[in-house]
């Protein structure tokens, strides 16, 4: 049966709310009142955000599934480029295994291309499911659970202040300055800032240098023991800092909470936090042989897919390929979009990526689109893909040169949930 995918309208948001509640039942009430409330909120976002739209898949005029589509501005190695994002992909339970999700993701990719994006992003409900669709892993997320007194206390609290709605623009300016200097970050808009203060559980603390905000945390609390209201953790939901002084000031604030807070819970893609802390252990007391103390949990999440080979060359203008000069062809397999592999010729000239010519090819590199996407995003090393057997080289002697070309100093960071 032929499908139609289009924007949701009117009472269709109620139908989608029902599908979403059944697909993702955790923390959602299966009541008419909650359904109405969720539908109204989704419709408000659709109509007011300016960057988010909801689409549904219909067969025989019946809504079988839907998704939330985002248009982002993302830092790709120093250049701000458009990127596509998808979330809340939900399928009616009666129509699972009928390729509804596959058709929705295919539409999302086409939608993002039309918006000028060379990369599409998503958070997977199952990483293997989306890897089969060609999405490659981004940078791991690390969860630290830190005793407050393990944070350094040598900073100054002089510039610290509690922030409110009146500070929204200063928060956005601080965040976007940081995002424009950090590969992988997504810029915030006014709608994002409104959402920050719509959540009553959010508290915001800022670090000022004079009138300029140089860092902030968004945080809340979680009860450790339901039988004892005095046992709580402080959960950091967003942590942005532009300067070492801003970091040490916020660290001093966290250190000073040790009398009432058991652990600071911090999710970050920075995997070197232990160098700042007095005690980086997470409280599990788990010992990894022979004697390695557990500091954090880690997991894969945000995934990337290159969806436009020509556009990604333009978008990667900010990436330096380490002064390498080489001509090569990538043979990229993408079973989700095409049976035949794509062949893209590249030239790197003094570290700058350019479109190449097939006749100038010195080496052919064959790989899957998911690994190609991770490589282009800078979240995996060329050498690792080669050693793991995830790519093939027509001339193995080129491996050291290609490894040098694709080496990066910083993997992509992203703090935007969607």
Automatic annotation (TrEMBL):
Listed Gene3D superfamilies: 3.40.630.30, SCP2 sterol-binding domain
Protein keywords: Transferase
GO molecular function: aminoglycoside N-acetyltransferase activity
Entries under InterPro entries matching the protein: Acetyltransf_17, Acetyltransferase_Eis, Acyl_CoA_acyltransferase, Eis_dom, GNAT_dom, SCP2_sterol-bd_dom_sf
GO process annotations (BP): aminoglycoside antibiotic catabolic process
Keyword Amino-acid biosynthesis carried by entry: no
Residue ranges annotated for the N-acetyltransferase domain, each copy included: 3-154
Keyword Membrane set for record: no
Name of the protein in question: GNAT family N-acetyltransferase
């Amino acid at each position: 049966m032929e499908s139609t995918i289009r924007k949701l309208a009117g009472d269709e948001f109620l139908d989608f709310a029902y599908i979403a509640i059944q697909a993702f039942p955790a923390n959602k009430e299966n009541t008419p009142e909650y359904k109405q409330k969720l539908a109204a909120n989704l419709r408000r976002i659709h109509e007011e955000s300016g960057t988010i739209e909801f689409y549904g898949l219909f067969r025989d005029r019946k809504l079988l599934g839907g998704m939330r589509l985002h248009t982002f501005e993302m830092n790709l190695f120093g250049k701000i480029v458009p990127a596509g994002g998808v979330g809340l992909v939900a399928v009616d339970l009666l129509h699972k295994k009928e390729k509804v999700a596959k058709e929705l993701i295919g539409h999302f990719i086409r939608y993002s291309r039309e918006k000028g994006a060379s990369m599409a992003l998503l958070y997977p409900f199952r990483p293997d499911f989306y890897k089969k669709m060609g999405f490659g892993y981004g940078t791991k997320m690390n969860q630290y659970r830190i005793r407050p007194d393990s944070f350094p206390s040598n900073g100054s609290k002089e510039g610290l202040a509690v922030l409110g709605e009146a500070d929204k623009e200063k928060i956005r300016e601080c965040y976007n300055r940081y995002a424009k200097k950090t590969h992988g970050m997504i810029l915030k808009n006014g709608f994002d800032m409104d959402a920050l203060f719509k959540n009553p559980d959010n508290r915001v603390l800022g670090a000022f240098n004079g009138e300029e905000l140089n860092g902030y945390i968004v945080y809340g609390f979680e009860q450790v023991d339901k039988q004892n209201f005095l046992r709580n953790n402080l959960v950091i939901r967003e942590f942005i800092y532009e300067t070492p002084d801003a970091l040490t000031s916020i660290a001093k604030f966290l250190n000073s909470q040790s009398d009432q807070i058991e652990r600071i819970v911090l999710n970050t893609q920075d995997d070197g936090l232990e160098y700042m802390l007095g005690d980086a252990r997470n409280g599990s007391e788990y010992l990894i042989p022979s004697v390695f103390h557990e500091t954090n949990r880690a997991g894969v999440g945000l995934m990337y897919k290159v969806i436009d080979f020509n556009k990604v060359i333009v978008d990667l203008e900010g990436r330096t390929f380490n002064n390498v000069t080489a001509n090569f062809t990538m043979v990229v397999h993408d079973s989700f979009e095409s049976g035949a592999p794509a062949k893209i010729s590249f030239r790197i000239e003094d570290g700058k990526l350019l479109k190449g010519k097939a006749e100038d090819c010195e080496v052919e590199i064959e790989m899957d689109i998911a690994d190609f996407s991770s490589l282009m995003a800078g979240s995996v090393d060329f050498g690792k893909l080669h050693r793991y057997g995830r790519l093939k080289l027509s001339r193995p002697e080129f491996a050291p040169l290609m490894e040098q070309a694709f080496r990066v100093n910083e993997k992509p960071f992203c703090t935007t949930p969607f």
